Amino acid sequence: MFTKHSCIYFSLFPFLFSLGYDCALAQSYPTRPIRIVVPFTPGSASDILTRLIGPKMSENWGQQVVADNRPSAGGTVAGEIVARATPDGHTLMLTSSAFAGSAALYDKLPYDSVKDFSGVSQVAETALVLVVAPSLGVKSTKDLLALARAKPGYLTFASSGIGSGTHYGSELFKMAAGINVVHVPFRGTPEGITDTVAGRVHYYLTPLLPVMPLIKAGRLLPLGVTTAARQPLMPDVPTLAESALPGFQYDGWFGVFTQSKTPRKTIVQLSREIARILGLAEVKERIASQGATAKSSAPEQFDKLVHGEIVTRKKVFKAAGVKAE
Q: How confident is the model over 155-179, as pLDDT tens digits?
């Protein structure tokens, strides 16, 4: 892989040009700072991952990588920025599965979720963890479901926005449990966490990354995780399937997109750089310490995942009666 040092190296060893190496090619990308648009607030899982990956990319390529938080309209504002950006790989978006949720939920978006974007790579996958404030007085998922059934329409649940991954996971949970609860969407994950800790909403199915410190501090009580197996960071916390809802499973994901007309060689170069970064032991350990798993993918694999989930989410939202507001 070419780096910022390539041209210096070539100038010292001119014979390399005879082997087909081109200094202009080495500098063709990136040629200026890279902007990673984040559709959620600072402190969200997408933001945490961006600020972990960005500096590593900057170190290798010698260009500044800037995180640009644009938390509005379920991620569609950020999506429009990237869809309208110059297609040269200098404007990216690191987002959650909320991207598929918006595409499934909204009939009219300021962009085409399939035609205007190219997947670069998946970045991580994570469980959602069902958390409540200790003041709610429930100790398990069964306790929470019993309370919900005893008081239909009383319990509220947070999400990081309509159509977000936390909303989608919560609708799956609601349907599987057969409960009547009220959705309270927030601008981002941190805001939903704050109101859950304060007891202003009753529960939150949220990514592990941003809530681990609060769980460790005892300010939030974890009742269950959405993955098929228990999480290494919380081996005593059961899965929702084993504790109350047999067969239930949901895995959240995060990934990087860019404008669809970006040259394929640039997309592949970006994908390989992300894979390199996610392969670093310190990065894998940092992501694992936050309750997620580093996971890269080829652009084609990521596109297949996203496009398939758009179809699935349309079916779930329709069955759950969820409508865009």
A: 999 998 888 889 999 999 999 999 9
Find tokens 């379920």 and name the residue: 74
Token output for 241: 């399937």
68: left (phi over 0), alpha (psi -120 to 50) or beta: beta
At 214 the three-state DSSP class reads: helix
Distance between first and last Cα of the chain: 46
Joined tokens for residue 13 = 């060893």
pLDDT at 20 over 70: no
For β-strands 251-259 and 117-132, DSSP reports them as antiparallel
Angle 221-225-243 from CA coordinates, rounded to 5°? 90
Q: CA-CA distances (angstroms) from residue 211 to 43, 129, 173, 194, 207?
A: 10, 9, 19, 10, 7
- Please say if the pLDDT value at position 37 is more than 50: yes
Q: How confident is the model at residue 325 (pLDDT cuts 50, 70, 90)?
A: low
Instruction: Yes or no: say if 292 and 125 are a contact pair by the CB < 8 Å rule.
Output: yes
CB 47 within 8 A of CB 38: yes
CB 101 within 8 A of CB 184: no
Residue carrying structure tokens 């994901």: 253
CA–CA separation, 90 vs 194, rounded Å? Answer: 34
DSSP at 228: S
Q: How confident is the model at residue 71 (pLDDT cuts 50, 70, 90)?
A: confident
Q: Is the pLDDT of residue 16 over 70?
A: no
* Burial group, residue 178, by CB count within 10 angstroms (0-12, 13-18, 19+): exposed
Considering the entire predicted model, what is its pTM? 0.79
